[in-house]
């Protein structure tokens, strides 16, 4: 499947101190996606958490927006080597979504409309490390950037911050998602340059 990289060519690359190794600073917001951009009507949007025993907890859009939200300012780092500093989001913490979920799992698989998946250890979604974001820079999240809602896991490479998110499956064993099965690193720490298997 081809990578769509509209708006991603010929940009000036700026290196600054404090970026993860191998990264350069960008001031725009490049669009990189595998496959076409899903357009999800809000009356069809849902987010479902499925435990390792098959127990499901689900929210529709109205229920999701009624949950406690947070404003988050954070840096983001793409595996294709761009970093964007001080991005601002509003979303619901995974701590809130998982608060009443009974699980002994250590791993998760994040699911998206359109079939995309990515694996993230459960501990990397807790303790104010991850959100389901629905606003960027004060505006509703555009479909090209994962709207109406996307995962934000800013301490990992940005492919772990799945666009168009619709669910989370809790798992006892780690499994590769879409890019991990294609050779990307199972974890993806930008500070350790964990881009590909073997890094």
Automatic annotation (TrEMBL):
PANTHER family: OXIDOREDUCTASE MOLYBDOPTERIN-BINDING DOMAIN-CONTAINING PROTEIN (PTHR43032:SF4), PROTEIN-METHIONINE-SULFOXIDE REDUCTASE (PTHR43032). It comes from Paractinoplanes ferrugineus. It holds the Pfam family Oxidored_molyb. It comes from the Bacteria. This is Molybdopterin-binding protein. Residues 35-179 form the Oxidoreductase molybdopterin-binding domain.
